[in-house]
Amino acid sequence: MTLLNRLNNDIKVAMKAKDKETLSVLRMMKSSIQNEEIKKGESLSPDEELTVLSREMKQRKDSLQEFNQTDRPDLAEKVSGEIKIVERYMPEQLSEDELRNIVQSAIDETGASSMKDFGKVMGVVMPKTKGRADGQKVNSLVKESLA
Q1: Which value, to the nearest 10 degrees, does the dihedral of the CA atoms of residues 8, 14, 17, 22 take?
Q2: What's the domain range around 121?
Q3: How far apart are alpha carbons 129 and 135 in whole angstroms?
Q4: pLDDT band per the 50, 70, 90 thresholds, residue 1
Q5: H-helix or E-strand containing 7?
Q6: Is 18 helix (H, G, I), strand (E, B) or coil?
Q7: Which residues touch 47 (CB under 8 Å, ≥6 apart)?
Q8: Are 115 and 77 in a shared domain?
Q9: Co-location of 35 and 106 in the same domain
């Protein structure tokens, strides 16, 4: 079952349950995927769907951070709920230990020894962690390991 089919089924369930918040988030996700398909001119692969979902998640996390900084608990709570809904469709996140192992194996693989090799290491790590780890967290772990 493709992500779009799963979203359509879950939209129907949310409509029947009269769950407006979930329905709104699911429709936004569906719309993002469909817009991407229109741009591409064909159906998206599972990896491309994951990229779209990751972008949706990142937008919400950025919004949450902004709302917390500007002391808007009402909006922060709303966005937190949206994040929980989007997380249902994301693959299981990597633990910190798993992430450290991936970073270390990438450093060994590229022969990196200093911060000059940061780009090489990130180029190896990011495809392996796509959608399963926050990019900022990966970035900080790579910097920490290379320092």
Answers
A1: 180
A2: 96-146
A3: 9
A4: low
A5: helix 3-17
A6: coil
A7: 130
A8: no
A9: no
